[in-house]
Structure formats: structure tokens, C-alpha cells
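Class, discuss our next protein.
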Amino acid sequence: MKFVGRDEELEELHKLLQENNQVAIAAILGMGGLGKTELALQYAMTQRENYKGGLCWLQAKVEDFGVQVVQFARTQLDLKPPEDFDLPTQVQYCWRNWREGNVLLVVDDLTDYQQIRPYLQGASSRFKVLMTTRKKLGAGIKQLSLDVLQPDAALELLRSLLAETPGRIERELDVAKQLCEWLGYLPLGLELVGRYLARKQDLSLSKMMQRLEKKRLEQDALDKPDADMTAQRGVQAAFELSWEDLAEDDQLLGCVLSLFATAPIPWNLVEQCLPDKDEEDLEKIRDNKLLYLHLLQRKGEGIYQLHPLLREFFQSKFTGLEQAEEFKRSFCQVMVAVAKKIPETPTLEEINAVSLAIPHIAEVANNLIQYVSDEDLIWHFVGLANFYEGQGLYTQAEPWRKQCLSTVQNRLGDNHSDVASSLNNLAYLYNSQGKYDQAEPLFFQALELRQRLLGENHPDIASSLNNLALLYNSQGKYDQAEPLFFQALELRQRLLGENHPDVATSLNNLALLYYSQGKYDQAEPLFLQALELYKRLLGNNHPLVATSLNNLAYLYNSQGKYDQAEPLFLQALELRQRLLGDNHPHFAQSLNNLALLYNSQGKYDQAEPLFLQALNILERSLGENHPNTVRVRENLADLRDHL
């Protein structure tokens, strides 16, 4: 195996083997394919001058350790342990009569330290024992846990394997990086694929990637090592050794873990997928088997992850399990429950709380949606879109809104309330992006479908009317917006009662319409009503309260009531920063509005940095051509005209 990216590990290994005054014992730990044997070999080669007493390389699985030591001593050192001694005594004889100088004993692929421990009695401190193993061997042994290569080192390894065809990596650099990532930066996988590519000089990296994605671990490139490689097995065969060490329940847990995406997994989600399993029993399997055999990695408190190729391996085993379908449905149910908890306007705290689950919700949406019931079909997509849209990441939300619509239409047909919701949600996203021409027909389709399926007296009808009115208001079509806002408000008051957040939203939106028309006296009482209702129903710490404060302040600013506007703008700014974070478009809006206030007062030095900060956020999140971005850019230009 070409050797790159392990310089620090070599230094650490040497340090571990020099620390003990007694016989020094260290182990290289890790899953199959990490290059444990290769690291031991490289260490032996680079440090051979420090081991004048010689290097003794022993294979733990080939023959008894003591037998191998005695054979080595006889053939390589010309020692003659008395044959009438028992084996342990012969080994002791070898230790006492070994050639002078430090000695490196390498025991490759050890599974049980107790097999060699008795033989080490009597060995002096000049003997250094280095073991490679897939298992954790005990607290008394100094351990070096080997991990996958860093991305740059993985790319360098691939490049070195294709050295005979210079420029091959550079011509397809992005694909080469994808190839390294697909292989999970596993040295064995990288070398097998690199050597395969080296033999097939006309095979493009893109084609290699396609073959791997099609045949997965069954692909020929991952199967058979060359004769000159340290590794004796292909990737799948290397993993198979660990699989054979697992009991049925251990194997089952590994398979369930493979349902999750290739991303950190919160353990509480795993427990929810297996409600019939005892929590303590699951922990025992996790800690005493999967972690012990390096089939699972601990990434943090309560957070674990499978290597991508191990995930492939466990998935290949899943197909043979009788309960596979049942566990897939259970996994999907757990993820839909998480998705349902993501609100339309999530706070930063809510975003952070659910962020680790997002890749796993996406895994269901992309690959396991057939195991989701009709009534829950929409929720994985809705949760994912809310997660991104709630952060102002509209371009990341859009594919989920589109996928939601197409998935629901394909399974439920065009005449279903979830289709109407999907149309409405996609249209709302387009409206937020300023794509009014794309939003309008979808809003109309959603409204027409809801009226046909639900009748005229339903809260969803009010939502559709409200959203269509918002679109018209954004376009300055006030005469078309006003009757729709009134209809939505009346319907919500009648169906939901006066004390409901949606009623507050309708009051706020109607006030916005009046503000846009310069009808400040009609707008103010509605803004105040909406603010009071939001605070009473949602509490003071809610994004909608911040929006309401901002709108009221904007009204006062337009009226020249700067002393009343400023504290409200500052409250809205603080609330948005705390609840939504520094990179949210609504936070940028607050910065812009406070800057407008200072600009109106001639405080240009205070206004300019706020405009710049707002513009930077909006260009990043919404793009340079979004109406809000353009508006802030114009505000900044107006200010500079005054300077």
C-alpha cells in the first residue's frame, strides 16, 4: 500500500513504544481496511536502526504465538531452546538469549491478548510488542486508534497510485474527490480502486464512480488485493471477519444503524427505532460489540456514526433479515415524528435541536419513502423545507418543496388535500424569493383545489386567500389584495375564534396593506392588535412578535415618530438576532430598517454600517437580484448621495 498521511501516527506509535520501563506493549486499533498492518510495517521499516536486536513479525491467526517465537529464534537467530522444556519455558529461553539490542515484536491481526500474554512473562524492557487488531484489548495496553485518511491525504494516495498516467486526477479533480468521499477515505478501498484504475488506463474516474454506485461493494475493484499489497482481503471480506464475531442481535443493530444516512446519528433516535429492545441491552451491544470491534464510531456525547462502506456492508446484510421491512417502517415513523415537530418559523434553538436529524429525514425522503404511510407522506418534505426556509435558505428549501409536490401527486393523484398544501407551500416559497410569476398560478391552483375538496368554510381556504393577497400586496396590486385579506380575516375569526395566531397574522397583513397605501391611521390599530395578540398567545420570545414589533416601528418611522420607532426597531433586532441568528434575512431586514431610521435623522455614520451588514447577509441568503436585496442596495446608494 502506498503510504501517505500517517506521519503523526508513526511518531505517536514510536512514542508509545518507548514509554514503559517494562516490556513495552502497544496496539494499533481500528476497523478493517484502515491500514493497521501497513502502519506497523512502515514503522518497522523507518525505525529498523533503533532495533538492533531485530524485527520478529508474527501472524496471530496462523499459529500459536509461542510456537512462532521459538521457530523464529531457531531459524533466524540460531538459538537452540532445549526440546525437553515445555513451550512457555522454551520461549523464556529465547527471551534470555536473544541477540543484543532492542527488539520489535509485531503481532498482526490479534483478536485475543490473553493468547500471547503468558509468553511475555520474563521478557525484558528491550522487547517492544506492537499489535494490530480490530478489537479493543484492555485498559493496560497503550493504544493508537487509527482513523480514515484526511481528504487531502486520500486524494494524494489516489494520485500516487495513478502516477504512471500523470494528470489523470487533475483532469477529473472533482470526480476524484467524490470518489474519495464515496470510499469514506478508507485506505484499503482507495488502494484497491486506485490499482484497478491503474490497470485500466482508458477507464475514466467518472465511469469508475458509476460502476461503484451501481454494484456497491460487489464491484470488482473492491474485491481482490494484488499480491504485493499488505491487505490479504477485499473490503467486503475484511468486514465479513467482524460480522462473524457478532451475535444475531448485534448484527440486527448494525443493520438498523445502516438505515440512517452517512452522518452522525443521535443515539436516542436509534432507541426509538427499536422500542421493544431494552435500552441497557442496546447499549451493551453498542459498547461491547460494535464499538469494541470498531464497526461504529463515537462522535460525541450520545452521537455515533457508521463508516460509509460499513454502512453499505450492513445494508447488504439487511436484505436477508426476516424483519427488514418492519424495521424500515419503524425507522420512517421515527423520522416523520421528528419532521412534524419542525415549525414553519423555527428559532435558532429549534434549528440546532433538530439539525443532526436532518440528514436522516432526507434519507427517508430520498430512499425509503415507499415505507411511509399515505397520511404521513408529506411530512418528511415539509419538515426539511421548513428547516431550510426558516433559516432563509430558500434555494436549499426549494428542491424539497418540489419533491414533495411530485411525490404526493404520483402516489395520491392530483385531487388530494396534500397536493393543495404542497402547491401552496411551493408558491409561498416562490413569493419569499420574489418569484411572483411562478408563485401566482400555484396559489390559484391550491385555492381552487382546496375549495373543491374542503368547501368554502375551512381554515386552509383562509390560508390560501391570505397568501394570494400577500403576493398581490408585494406587487403593489392593492385593489386585488384588500378583499382577499378581508375574506381571510373574516373566515379565521369565524372558524378559529378571536384568540388565534392566524387571526393575528391576518390583522398584521391587513395593516401592512394599509401602510403600503399610506393609510397610517387605519394601519396603526391593526398593528397594535396583532402585536398584543401575538404576545398573549405566543409569549414575548417568538419570531412573529419580532415581525410585529418591526412593522409597528416601520409605521412610526414613516410618520416621523422616531422616538417611538427606535426602541421598537431595537427590540425587533435583538429578538431576531437571538431567535434566528446573524445570517437570517429577517435579521438583515431589521438592520436595514434601523439604518433607515438613522438615515432619516441624518445619522449617516450610524446608518451606513447597518446597511452594509444587511446587504452582505441578503446577497448571501437571497441573492443579488432579490427585491429585498435590491431595496437595501438602493437605500445604501441614497445614503451615499447625501454624504
About this structure: Residues 394-412 form the longest helix (19 residues). Strands lie at 24-29, 54-59, 103-110, 127-133, 142-145, 265-266, 297-300, 303-305. The radius of gyration is 33 Å. The chain has a mean pLDDT of 91.
